[in-house]
Amino acid sequence: MGLDFGSTASKGVVLKDGKEIVCTAIITSGTGTSGPERVKEKLLKESNLLESDMEAVVVTGYGRMTYQGAKKQISELSCHAKGVHFLVPDVGTVIDIGGQDIKALLLDKNGNLSNFVMNDKCAAGTGRFLDVMAGVLETEVSMLGEISMMSKAPVNISSTCTVFAESEVISHLSAGVNKEDIIAGIHISVAGRVAALAKRVGIKDKVVMVGGVAKNIGVVKAMEDALGKNIEVPKLAQLTGALGAALFAFEALNK
Amino acid sequence: MGLDFGSTASKGVVLKDGKEIVCTAIITSGTGTSGPERVKEKLLKESNLLESDMEAVVVTGYGRMTYQGAKKQISELSCHAKGVHFLVPDVGTVIDIGGQDIKALLLDKNGNLSNFVMNDKCAAGTGRFLDVMAGVLETEVSMLGEISMMSKAPVNISSTCTVFAESEVISHLSAGVNKEDIIAGIHISVAGRVAALAKRVGIKDKVVMVGGVAKNIGVVKAMEDALGKNIEVPKLAQLTGALGAALFAFEALNK
Ligand code: SF4
């Protein structure tokens, strides 16, 4: 079993023989809440297994140190790398846009982390940036991707800073610009910011996007334009940390 | 006459013989509005002078290029340096916190600019940061300084980013922390950010603070703590750009 206790969600994967994903679960409350316990219960219930059936548990994420009963705690970055490599064996660069940070990982052929860059000090380009903009636009953040696909003339957002960009969005709104064009401009702004960070770590085929923001098709398309490359978003994009933890658990048993 | 057309205010100074400040005016609307015309009219009216009495007009600030009829346009930084040096002849470092940017200037003995650093890309530490926090705290931004003086135990704000710091302030509020302690923590956060920038240009006695945020006594005190130095805030702190422009106008006549 691999568990990933983040700041806003708890995720888990049950893996059989280091190969087969038996069950996955996501609870949208993170460390410091009941999320960690609930995700474990959910996994056991849905897989019809007992805690004693788990041969090894590895835990990752921001809340990994508060959890008792794991065989190992392993850093998020290593788990993400391993999880993504399992899903997309020929991955080179992983771009992970979370709610409050951006990470770019460079992987070697075996899926080991060879370099990474991270921004967790500035909200620009993160999920939080999109939350702020969705608030101003009075739109659900989950709708942004779809709406932006209708844009024919994305606006230019010149400020990177969330606060200054918010003012620009308000000006565009009061000038009567279409929401789809504003949202498309917002996605281009996020992509510019994230692409700059990713280029610092290196862009190596295949490029894979994970993290909550990878569900936003508008950001993914804007990232493809910014990098001039196709980007793959695995179906289990939110679960790569927990999956990597489960793979480490399997490895730990076999050492 | 020196005029300073900023993004949020228009300011002017009438100077006699390069020495005597005859009249000053501030209109709280900037370039692109009627502010520039109004500040000029106000200066002439209050000084009982005619436009033809002005021997030379120099204009500075963001809107300087849109103004017709000036002898010269001179950059803000040079005008600020000159204006501050006129008010505080032994100034070394000038720290200017505006509504949307932070500047730190290093001056030589003659009041000429020898180096500067500027941040206009990030709202952290600027007047805008304080505006956002005042909004969350439902407090007038002009009251922040005074309220913070009552604090006995300032909170720690760990994020520099405006967006993340705003979340911290909201948490403190919902945990029932006193407003004065939260505001004092906000001022310490601004001071930390600004002091780091100022150190990059160099801290040389005397240290002078100008710009809108210099009116906030809480930020000034927190800056003194952060730098371990006394800071002087000239009475005409908002007018140093216009004053410098007027000094340049006088110089231009005498060359
Ligand atoms: S640029 Fe804006 S979003 Fe980034 S740290 Fe500064 S205030 Fe925060």
TrEMBL record, chains A, B:
Its cofactor is [4Fe-4S] cluster. One of its GO terms (molecular function) is iron-sulfur cluster binding. Gene3D superfamilies: 3.30.420.40. Pfam families: BcrAD_BadFG. Residues 2-249 form the ATPase BadF/BadG/BcrA/BcrD type domain. Keywords: Iron, Iron-sulfur, Metal-binding. NCBIfam families: CoA_E_activ. PANTHER family: BIFUNCTIONAL PROTEIN [INCLUDES 2-HYDROXYACYL-COA DEHYDRATASE (N-TER) AND ITS ACTIVATOR DOMAIN (C_TERM) (PTHR32329:SF2), BIFUNCTIONAL PROTEIN [INCLUDES 2-HYDROXYACYL-COA DEHYDRATASE (N-TER) AND ITS ACTIVATOR DOMAIN (C_TERM)-RELATED (PTHR32329). Homodimer. This is 2-hydroxyglutaryl-CoA dehydratase. The lineage of its organism: Bacteria, Bacillati, Bacillota, Clostridia, Lachnospirales.
